[in-house]
Amino acid sequence: MHRKCKGVGQAAGEDIKMDTTIVSVKSLVKTYKMGDVEVHALRGVNVDIMKDDFVAIMGKSGSGKSTFMNILGCLDIPTRGKYYLDGVDVSSLSRDELANLRNRKIGFVFQSFNLLSRTSALENVELPLMYNKKISSHEMHERSMKALEAVGLADRAHHFPNQLSGGEQQRVAIARSLVNDPVVILADEPTGNLDTRTSLEVMAIFQKLNQKGITVVIVTHEPDIAAFTKQNITFRDGRIIKAIAVDKPRNAMNELASMPAVTDEEDEL
Amino acid sequence: MKVKNLLKAALRSLAKNKMRTFLTMLGIIIGVASVIAMLAIGEGSKQSIQAQISTLGTNVLMIFPQASSSGGVRMEAGSSQKMTIEDVTAISDRCPSVAYVTPQVRTSGQLVNGNMNWRTSVYGVYPNYFEIRNLKLMSGNLFTLSDDRSATKVCVIGQTVVNNLFGANTDPTGSYIRINKIPFKIVGITEKKGQNAFGQDQDDMVFAPFSTVQKRIMAITFIQSMLASATTEALIPAASREITDVLKAKHNLGPSEDPDFTIRTQTDIATAATATSGILTILLATIASISLLVGGIGIMNIMLVSVTERTREIGIRMSVGARGRDVLLQFLIEALLISLLGGFIGVTLGVLVSQLIANILSWPVTITIPSILMSFLFSSAIGIFFGWYPARKAAGLNPIDALRYE
Ligand SMILES: Nc1ncnc2c1ncn2[C@@H]1O[C@H](COP(=O)(O)OP(=O)(O)OP(=O)(O)O)[C@@H](O)[C@H]1O
Ligand SMILES: [Mg+2]
Question: pTM for the whole thing?
Fold first, then answer.
């Protein structure tokens, strides 16, 4: 809606009020019913996330982070409350319209990668485009290769997930999430299964994407990782208890460069 | 999703799980093949029975004396002595729908030629018996009615009798044999006819003039049965009615009284035999259907085993934007490909097995198009249903539930 009328050159993360709202959530409630027991995963969440924002969602295990992310990703539906994505009232959409939304506007990265097994990296990345009738096979291939290049895996395009390391699989998953030019990338603990260096690589990719104007929301348990984002939101018991802007986000690219290169040198030691 | 991509996705998923694909297909292959083979055997035996019944003759009616129940004691069928040669004459004179009628007596005879001997049935009939039964001679001539009147000791013998008394590839026309010690001249040899519907060797017979057998061999005065033929197939019922009327009148039976004879027509026999082979076909079809069903259960089993994997895959596809119908379509195409390919292989195998049965066991088999279509459609339906079922279930889930499915 008010997205296109935005001026240029805002300082990232600052002056939030003037920025365009990509995600807007009002009194979001999610209750799981397990027989007689009701689990209140979300108890009224209100939050606005702006374009160009890079948000880290923190909180203890069971505080509702994944539930929140799944609803943002249109993978799950809230019990109550409103959710606007890029100006669209998501709660009023049909299943097919939700699928379209996931296909065109959202990139989702799972902690457990969720790649199709015995399917090459390239084909995994192509998957979202397969469900977009407007895209020719040629364009599909080209865009997927570009996405793989963006995560530094162009040379592994024809490898299968079981031939890739965890970090590489996560990068394939990120390539898949960005191949459809989404307005928002949602990543639930994208570095949860990765070591420090690989985590840095993944964060560097997210920062690069964020600089290009894609909104990024990640869930993380590690404050170190959250320090690479611009805003940290903390959940507790299904509510947001804290939302702070990060003073000086760390730069993953620079830190990677200053890190002793592991691969060859370590072998020689 | 575009059809091309759908096909690609389906083919890839089949290729990805070759073992699963193969096992799924195996159920269909075995099911289809067995249905086709079973039905081919059933149909084949039905047709061969029908073919054999037509060798019985044309428009044949058989007339047996009824087991008499006079004095309250039931006697064995055919034991009645009430049928006489006058009955034959009456039928031939007074039944317009009857083309031929012949009396018939049958006894077993010990046949001797030099040091060779053979035991077989000896029939005493009129020469028109050969018209009724469509019997032809491959050598020599028939005996005549004047042979019958004078009870001449002549006979016509079948090929099996020739083989056993004279050896194969001989023509003993004009030679003499002894039947129960009485010398008979062989005047003709019947053409080979093979077995009849009841497994009887139709070449293992001796025919002689009726009076010769009745008087000289059997020394009786009655006749055992009659064989008649209607002028056309449509007139078989009319002929049957006329014979009934004439015989009842001859035997002094009122119209409301039960006849003391039985008439069996070729149609009756054909109906009975077809019913028997129909039961056989149903039996075989049942067995085959059970194997199809077992195949179907196999498919379901494999599909259910892979349901976790498939549901996660569906979750992944939905998370990147697949709609319910995209998922359904992909699975439908997958199931369709499996069924069509499996069905095709099954049909091929079924035809091959049928041919093998025909060649090795020399059973009569007939493969019919409906049996192919039926088993093909049925197995496809099973394959599609069981392949589609998990997909349909998963496509109704929220993506996140599909992803979490365990
Ligand atoms: N499908 C479900 N059915 C029932 N309860 C659920 C379901 N999913 C989550 N919950 C419950 O909802 C609450 C929030 O779960 P959620 O997965 O959002 O937590 P989280 O913050 O992501 O935790 P973690 O950091 O361990 O991933 C928990 O109490 C959890 O048990
Ligand atoms: Mg979680």
Answer: 0.70
